[in-house]
Design brief:
By secondary structure, the chain is an alpha+beta fold.
Length: 374
Amino acid sequence: MEFKINRNVLLDNLNKANRIIDFKAVNPTLTGILLDVSPNQVTITSTNNSLSFKAYLNSDNAQLEVATTGKILLKGKYILEMLRRLDQEIVTLVNIENSELTIKNSNTEFNCGLLESEEYPLLGFKERGVEINLKPTSFRRALSQTIVSIDETNKKMILTGMNFRIQNQALMVSTTDMHRISQKKISLDIDSSTQCNVTVPYKTVVELMRLLDGVKVLKMVVSEGYLTFLMDNMVFQSTLIDGQYPLVEGVFPKDFNLTLKVNQKVFLKALSRADLSAETGLAPIINLNIQQTKMVMKADLVEIGNFEEDFFDFESDATMPMTINFNLKYLIEAIRSFNDNLELKFVGSTNPLLITQVDDENLKQVILPTYISN
């Protein structure tokens, strides 16, 4: 096997493949990255059984020139380091006896051992099923806005992931840790009868957000037991979490006694002044005393002191004062997911807070208040 290829493109795709590998896997072949070289294409594959990745490199996207074909199983972290140390645009990879790989350019050469490619499992990528075309930037934004409410350590396995539900020509992206809820609605140009309801692990979401950076074409495929994403030259597949995800819409409050309108950046800056959790490791509880023209914010900062600020930069329909407490970390993360003027909608001091963007309710953040005993 021998081929020439753009070093940066190869390095980028090998790095994506390497990120999902479990280097503690009992089967040593699963710690490797499979390169399958055909006359016109190099296919890169990796898996950890839960996540699988595949990328296609060719003359158009990677300046590929194949001299001879073959299949090899790389030791990922060593190959990555070798490619980083080379400094020319085009590199050559050569494997003659299937036990050693040579990586070289015009004046540098590395040699490294290989794993046994014949023992690598045959992966079944599910590229057919319920197929949904998505806008990559909008979908990635939805993931980043809702991932904050996932509790990766929750004892209820279904709550350790992100739920994707399609109905009424819309994709609902939902997460909850039972203390807060994040939900983003994405309108879809699909048949009204199309439906699905699947939940993927937290690590799937984290890796998917990385892979989506810069992607131009995206398709989501829902099949039995799997969720697959087709992105430009890549395929990314995840197993699903078994179980029924809670219907979080039932928790959303509908009738409100107080609504505030506030600029996201201004309010976030004020809340951040009370956030010294990095110093103590503990997220403080913030007390909001909301009046018609003033909000008094107070927080006891463990082992540091206390915080108090009078905040005036908001509009309110308040007729009576309201006092309510929140976990400051939850409130800041919810506010940070928006980027414009906000509406904070209150029912009462013991009821959930609903946060939306003015004139756009596609993103909803719900936070339960925190009870403080006297």
